[in-house]
Fold each of these.
Amino acid sequence: MVDKTWPRIIQGGMGVAISNWRLAHAVAAAGGLGVVSGTGIDTVLIRRLQDGDDGGPVRQALAASPWPELAHDITARYFREGGRGPSEPYVRLPAWTAGPRSRRAALAMMGGFVECWLAKRGHARPIGVNLLTKAPLPNLAVLYGAMSAGVDVVLMGAGIPRDIPKALDRMAGHHAASLRGDIVGGGHFDIVFDPAWTGVAQAAPLRRPPFFPVIGAHSLALLMERKTPGGVEGFIVETARSGGHSAPPRGARHVNRDGEPIYGPRDEVDWQVMRDLGKPFYIAGGYGTQDGLAEAVARGAQGVQVGTLFAYCEESGMDSPLREQVLAAVRRGPVTVRTDPDASPTGFPFKVVRLEGTLSEPATYAARPRRCDLGYLREAYTDSAGSLRFRCAAEPVRAYVAKGGRAEDTVRRQCLCNGLMATAGFAQRLPSGGTEPPILTSGDAILETRNLMRGGRPAYTARDVVRYLTAGRAAPVFAQASQPGAHP
Ligand SMILES: Cc1cc2nc3c(=O)[nH]c(=O)nc-3n(C[C@H](O)[C@H](O)[C@H](O)COP(=O)(O)O)c2cc1C
């Protein structure tokens, strides 16, 4: 049984694999809502297996899945006892396409299952899954896998996830579901996931998890309410101080001296509108302090969603040497987080931490030959014959232009797929002998981590974060629900 109240604190979904099952599990144990990231989870799943699956958690989760043949096939294909050889690259997967019966869809479904099953193992606290609307191809498969593991909440941002409530309804009954993918220049294509393709008929219907879109403006909350009546159980209102992708400013584009987008009065949230919707909402982005939580509650929010503080705690999925490098830099002095309007191939602003050895350094960026072999952020376009194709503004410029893209859209674009995999400790080995360099994203409030390291402590845990935010009191972590009957 799941706790029948909404938590005060949500640990934000942080892709790729920063919010992994260990972090979500630790946050749940501390009394918050632990959230796993489902972004890139098919690649994460097979890379963990190729790295030897230390202690066997992934294989235990696979063995518990409703799809034993698939689990066996995945283990046989990807598991390496003791990990890969010293110069062995990770196996590459075929690129995602809109075709539903692909091996990728099966891996994405299993990835969603494994992550949520492990995060939920051994306790009855709720666990959420977070996905990016802007990377739509795997999303239905990941959600069906997560639902098969009993996920309690679905949270999705970076876009307008209008089709998701209906898809959740359908997949709860094991029916085929579809999403509309956007085609550059206009038009749509269907992304379909049919549980029947797994070849396993699960008898009992799945629980339909509550859905919380992550939005940057109250107008989007109104839109979601209007267009998906009854489909949305609450909201995460994310300010532009959040890590990862943010919504671009409304209106004409203005930048400051550092080239960062400037947000103005039109981007301010009308909290009265949020309150009037009568649904629980959380505020995210620079609210990871005791004052932040108090301020959010005073605005009528149920609580806060916090990312940055959790991204650097011991249970985070961030590669440990990188995490320690950041915390050492934070202890030494200021660390710059830049809102980069160009880094993400999606065109959304993306926050980048300036850190030695990462793609934030112009020399490291320039030394990396462009390649696109993961492809989560590719955009759909139609070629001259009218066929549906995909391209990424961070792929080799010539290839992008040959696919009808504009050369100017490739400038300063980062390969977030490979960079973020590297940040989570899954860097691909390169033919040249090196590995893909990492890229680090963070909220503006990165220096708040100092509050967790007082007294010379070099590190802190997820429990420390929850305690810090709730001023050491155990009780108020779970708030009284404002919407009876609509709980996770
Ligand atoms: C490292 C990192 C990665 C993130 N990745 C995602 C993501 O994949 N999807 C998402 O909806 N939000 C993402 N976020 C935003 C967080 O979920 C959260 O809403 C935000 O960071 C809250 O603000 P704070 O960092 O000031 O606490 C990310 C944040 C960080 C720090």
Amino acid sequence: MRARKKKNTPERLLKYSHLFINKENRDEAFFENKKIKIEIGCGKGAFISQSALLEPDVAFVGIEKVSDVIATAAVKTDECGAKNIRLLMADASELCDYFSDHSIDTVYLNFSDPWPPNNRAKRRLTHRGFLEIYKRLLTEDGRLEFKTDNDKLFDFSVDEISSNGFEITYLTRDLHSENVPNVVTEYEARFSQEGVPIKKLVAVLKK
Ligand SMILES: C[S@@+](CC[C@H](N)C(=O)[O-])C[C@H]1O[C@@H](n2cnc3c(N)ncnc32)[C@H](O)[C@@H]1O
């Protein structure tokens, strides 16, 4: 996501610092006895804020590496009124520094950057390197949910996920034609308005 540089990012990060976890403060009391669901690459926070309102007993964490973008997610988190969201400004590769092994119920990857050239495949959030991290973090019954507009990234992800310790339990190449519950993300709204079919898969750990 290319965001225009916003001058007030440091002020917004400071104003909403109580919504953030970091290495010094993991806010363990917030997570106690709760299911944890995380969105990696949460962008401006539309998905995480709607999801948190729908499931108030779940602890949601929006993870985003770009400061301007997560500062906007912080404003949205505050405005939506949900009390069950925390934010983490970090790269997905660092997640094991913040979460205990087998502590996460669901990893959401929504409209992850496709990184088209093959020599950049390692940066895709469905690359086997990241899948190893999710396998470590997910509970035994945990799940990975992935949505994208991008056919090539979807095909890559189906192969990568099914050949690296996960079993795909749901797959559609046109999510919006199906009668299933769905929380629409910012990118999803944009792509579906343009008529691009939304692809989705759900995967669980192979037993
Ligand atoms: C295309 S946007 C999608 C945003 C949102 N999930 C949506 O569906 O509207 C992808 C986001 O993922 C973030 N991102 C990409 N790679 C990441 C990584 N390795 N760790 C954390 N965030 C990442 C980008 O900064 C960007 O904000």
Amino acid sequence: MANIGLYIELKDGSFKKSNRELLSLARKGGHAVHAVVFCADVQPFLEEMQGVQSVIQVTGADLAYQPERYARTLAKVIEEYKLEAFLGIYSAQGKDLFPRLAALLKAGLVNDCLAVDLEKRQAVKPVYSGKLLAEYQVEGERALFTVRPNVIPVEPAAGGTPQVKSMTLDAGEAKARIVEVIQSASRKIDLTEAEVIVSGGRAMKAKENFSILEDLAQVLNAGVGASRAAVDAGFATSDMQVGQTGKVVNPKLYIACGISGAIQHFVGMKTSKIIVAVNKDPEAPIFKKADYGIVGDLFTVVPLLKEELKKALG
Ligand SMILES: Cc1cc2nc3c(=O)[nH]c(=O)nc-3n(C[C@H](O)[C@H](O)[C@H](O)COP(=O)(O)OP(=O)(O)OC[C@H]3O[C@@H](n4cnc5c(N)ncnc54)[C@H](O)[C@@H]3O)c2cc1C
């Protein structure tokens, strides 16, 4: 049995869905699990964290995410609780925080894991834009891992309410600090956590036309993504870009509308469980990668899809 820790990420004070995946992974194997949450009131999250041994609540005058302070506090928790492995989400925050933490602890870190074996301290992650899956072995006293959202099956939380312990945020000097977080004006579903994504490419032709994707997305409770061509043309915002230089997404269903299927787009969505492509060119490369293809004009197909899905889903 190992001492496993995990960083519970909150977004606007809410519990991120991907935390459940980390919790499911950590609880497996009967480890002693310690979850760290930076918040003023931990009570609303305790039910989600049933079955973990302790919840370490970090409090302080200003709990807004500041990378250096968070990293120093987590390093202290990891040392004090003698955590042998520490998990986080491969999110924008995870990507910012975990390398700092690894540097402070001089520990090995594997980012963007698709699978983690906590006993063996091994992890599998994609490399070379997803062309290969590499297996990593972490040596040393501690191992850090960030896990890609939507890859670990979620097990229901069970096993008793955890003990709450407390820790004070390290409020020391920081060389860099986040001054402002500008929220995207687009729909609030986080693409990296979304179960369904509807994406549009250059073929959308104008920003206003994304409204037909928004309508379909609303029926499916989906996030709306875009290709880089659509972003570069100003039809979509950069936070919507999926691909090598955009977001890596992993939904159950990815609907690509008017997207050719260039490799740089594909690497960002190739692990989607089901890919549906709508394209008027039957030779478009996306059809070689899609599970289902609809050859047709997206401006006809997407509204029809929306209507039929609306009926089917009641
Ligand atoms: C270093 C680098 C990094 C990159 N990173 C990314 C990235 O992160 N994400 C990304 O997406 N791209 C990225 N790209 C760009 C990538 O190479 C492609 O240029 C881009 O993905 C193409 O976008 P698209 O499929 O929307 O446009 P196009 O390739 O122009 O495809 C448009 C498609 O729409 C179809 N179409 C046209 N009209 C209709 C219609 N009415 N109905 C249905 N279908 C229609 C066409 O048949 C065509 O297949 C990167 C490129 C480089 C060099």
